[in-house]
TrEMBL record, chain A:
Database matches in PROSITE patterns: ABC_TM1 (PS50928)
Cell membrane among keywords: yes
Subcellular location: Cell inner membrane; Cell membrane
Domain ABC transmembrane type-1 residue range list: 256-452
Annotated TM spans: 44-67, 113-131, 143-163, 183-209, 221-241, 253-279, 291-315, 401-419, 431-451
Species for this entry: Xanthobacter agilis
Main subcellular location of this protein, as a coarse class: membrane
Record lineage: Bacteria, Pseudomonadati, Pseudomonadota, Alphaproteobacteria, Hyphomicrobiales
InterPro entries: AA_ABC_transptr_permease_3TM, ArtM/GltK/GlnP/TcyL/YhdX-like, MetI-like, MetI-like_sf
Membrane topology summary: Multi-pass membrane protein
Name listed for the protein in its UniProt record: General L-amino acid transport system permease protein
Pfam hit, one: BPD_transp_1
Automatic annotation (TrEMBL), chain B:
Native source species: Xanthobacter agilis
Record EC number: 3.6.3.-
MF GO annotations: ATP binding; hydrolase activity
Name listed for the protein in its UniProt record: General L-amino acid transport system ATP-binding protein
Gene3D superfamilies: P-loop containing nucleotide triphosphate hydrolases (3.40.50.300)
Keywords in alphabetical order: ATP-binding, Hydrolase, Nucleotide-binding, Transport
Family membership noted in the UniProt record: Belongs to the ABC transporter superfamily.
């Protein structure tokens, strides 16, 4: 059919149109401002309110923390308006004077290098783990999540625990082992107990697996039990061996050290536990499901303050006399379990968002249940709930301040203790202190928030169409 | 007929019967989805299963790799009887590949990773070898140059071809297709069907739930018609289309063949 035969009323374009630039009214800064700031009456009002808010808040803060602030001095006189002769804002010398207390608590001055090593080691191991381009991620993760906690633990406490009993000892079979004998500072009784207990546990696990899953499963179960106990043994050995460090009790720890110990432990423990609980809650095995639900609902139903209070003051009443658990450890465990319950529900939300087809795709390829979860479902579910996970991390980080009520002095607690120093009693000490604490908390929380957003963006590249 | 060496290798030493179903029954609650289904599929056969929606045809092939559980009867796949034994189920799933209506590719993995995941973790194949196998099949479905993209960046037809390649990477002896072209734009149906035809020519045992009657005519040895959970007609394609026996089949064919 040629062009001449077409009637003039046929609406068919004879040439392909090239793309044209947008009209002038749709470009330029004026256009942008009109579209985004002054587009409608409510928009104009909101813009004006925003401008007013910025001018109402920012200048006074700058005035107080920077312009009127005192930067140098040795005691309260530097920060008294009567002595200085002008209005005084933030009293920064107070922070400089108390910085050690805020960082280490009452950790003995001569031993503070150990805390510094822990801080530095943590930073050195964590940073490359967070930056995607750095290689050796697997090794790095093993070092940070496996080796670092043990090293940090030994460095901070001093190790050399003098362990005396393992399972059999506590079960009343003390007499089997030579009490008091030591080899290289290690109690023979404990380690003999450990070896015998491990062998018994492995045998028990093998027998149970044979009973439940058939004869083929025994050897595997024994091997798994032994490797788990082997790792436990290595950790215990590290804690038990005398490395020549002076022991430092946890009640001397304080300030940022305690904040970070509780927050980092809570964060790193809550994610894996939360994932296990979320999987447990969706399990088809009724017992696993009920236990997970009970655990989650119990910990979500009680306030953290109650948990800490119980862990500190009530738990010792129930435990047998010979078994004492360190106060800080109890608080850390309480916080971690509490955070796990919240994490579990966040992760469950992610799991529910994964379509059935993903499970079926994985099953049809022959991936067994555990691999299906690990390789297909969880990576997608966790990616979906990164905002919720980081929300929990940030909440947990700030909730650590509640340990103050059980007399553990975290950063905020150390700050409050510093306020009582009459040498630094000035009208602005309180504001300076809380302002500084606020800045420190903000830096950590904002850091987590930014990192998570960068992570989301990176992972989201896969979804772009 | 071109025989793909990798597929041929998987074929060697397999039992003669690919699938054997005897008196299979299945219920969803009170609803009787599969009623006394008897079916044998020989190695190398290509079966097309059609029927109105809700007739149980998807359920039937999903029983073959135990995505659905049957409650009565016997299903033997590649010499392995499907029971509650998880090990056997995984064994069957390793030998049976499947393609879904909605592809079910893993969106967080690249095309290549989608293809190497199961061979590496289930077959314990070294990464390099798994990638070679994956590239072999990606070339076969004609998208090797997309290997490092993510599924979301591909068209529907390309995604379904990747899904076929992913299934083939496990070197299955049987392939199941559950309405592989139903979710595709019309212009992408052909590329997927071409891939399936090629696979049929390589001698793969195939069970396809599809309404693509042209495909059925071209490659099927047998066409099965299902209604209300039963196989009510089974014949070789020419006879099936030109001379359907059952009233229900005639009605169905008159509605889909214009």
């Amino acid at each position: 059919m040629s062009d001449q035969t077409l009637s003039p009323h046929v609406f068919v374009s004879s040439v392909l149109l090239e793309p044209a630039p947008p009209p002038v009214s749709d470009r330029g800064p004026v256009r942008w401002a009109r579209a985004h700031l002054f587009g409608s009456v409510p928009q104009v009002l909101l813009t004006l309110f925003g401008i007013w808010l910025v001018f109402a808040v920012i200048p006074p803060l700058v005035q107080f923390f920077l312009i009127d602030a005192v930067w140098e001095g040795t005691d309260r006189k530097a920060c008294l308006p009567a002595d200085v002769g002008h209005p005084v804002g933030a009293c920064w010398p107070f922070i400089w004077a108390k910085i050690n207390q805020l960082t280490y608590g009452f950790y003995p001055a001569d031993e503070r290098w150990r805390v510094n090593v822990v801080y530095a080691l943590g930073a050195v191991l964590l940073l490359p783990l967070l930056i995607q381009k750095v290689p050796y991620k697997r090794l790095n993760a093993i070092l940070f999540f496996g080796v670092y906690p043990v090293v940090a633990f030994v460095l901070l406490t001093g190790g050399n625990f003098g362990l005396k009993r393992f399972l059999l000892g506590y079960l009343g079979f003390d007499g089997l082992f030579p009490i008091g004998a030591t080899v290289a500072g290690l109690s023979v009784a404990f380690w003999a107990d450990f070896v015998v207990s491990s062998a018994l546990l492995a045998l028990g696990a093998a027998a149970l697996a044979r009973f439940v899953a058939g004869p083929g499963a025994g050897l595997g179960a024994a091997r798994n039990t032994l490797s788990a106990l082997g790792i436990l043994g290595a950790v215990l050995l590290a804690a038990d061996i005398d490395v020549g460090l002076q022991p430092v009790e946890t009640r001397l720890w304080g300030g940022l050290l305690v904040t970070l110990v509780i927050a980092v432990t809570g964060i790193t423990a809550s994610l894996p536990f939360g994932i296990l609980l979320a999987l447990g809650r969706r399990s088809h095995l009724p017992l696993v499901k009920i236990c997970s639900i009970l655990f989650i609902e119990f910990w979500r139903g009680v306030p953290l303050i109650t948990v800490l209070f119980f862990a500190t003051y009530m738990l010792p009443l129930f435990l047998p006399g010979q078994l004492t658990i360190d106060g800080l450890l109890r608080a850390v465990v309480g916080v971690a379990l509490f955070a796990s319950a919240y994490m579990a529900e966040v992760v469950r939300g992610g799991l529910q968002a994964i379509p059935k087809g993903q499970y079926e795709g994985a099953m049809a390829l022959g991936l067994p249940g555990s691999l299906k979860m690990r390789l297909v479902v969880l990576p997608q579910a966790l990616k979906l709930v990164i905002p919720g996970i980081v929300n929990n991390f940030i909440g947990l980080f700030k909730d650590t301040t509640l340990v103050l009520i059980v007399s553990i002095f975290d950063l905020l607690g150390a700050m409050r203790a510093a306020f009582t120093d009459p040498n630094w009693a000035t009208p602005t000490t309180l504001f300076t202190g809380f302002g500084f604490a606020g800045i420190v908390y903000f830096v950590f929380c904002f850091g987590m928030s930014r990192y998570s957003m960068a992570l989301e963006k990176r992972l989201d590249r896969a979804r772009h169409h | 007929m071109s025989i793909d060496p990798v597929i041929a290798q998987a074929e060697a030493g397999a039992p003669k019967l690919a699938v054997e179903m005897v008196g299979v029954n299945k219920w969803y609650g009170q609803f009787h989805v599969l009623r006394d289904v008897n079916l044998t599929v020989e190695r190398g056969e290509r079966l097309v299963i059609c029927g109105p929606s809700g007739s149980g045809k998807s359920t039937l092939i999903r029983c073959i790799n135990r995505l659905e559980e049957h409650q009565k009867g016997r299903i033997v796949v590649d010499g392995i009887e499907l029971t509650d034994d998880l090990k056997r189920i995984d064994e069957v799933r390793r030998e049976v590949g499947m393609c879904f209506q909605h592809f079910n590719l893993f969106p967080h993995l690249t095309i290549l990773e989608n293809c190497t995941l199961a061979p590496m973790w289930v077959r314990k194949m070294p990464k390099k070898e798994a990638e070679e196998v994956a590239m072999h099949f990606l070339e076969k479905v004609k998208i090797p140059h997309q290997a490092h993209k993510y599924p979301g960046q591909l068209s529907g037809g390309q995604q379904q071809r990747v899904a076929i390649a992913r299934a083939l990477c496990m070197r299955p002896r049987i392939m199941l297709f559950d309405e592989p072209t139903s979710a595709l734009d019309p212009e992408m149906v052909k590329e997927v069907l071409d891939t399936m035809v090629e696979l049929a020519q390589d001698g793969m045992t195939m069970l396809c739930v599809t309404h693509e009657m042209g495909f059925a005519r071209q490659v099927a040895n047998r066409v099965i018609f299902m209604d209300a959970g039963q196989i009510i007609e089974m014949n070789e394609p020419n006879a099936f289309f030109s001379n359907p026996q059952h009233e229900r089949t005639k009605l169905f064919l008159s509605q889909i063949l214009h």
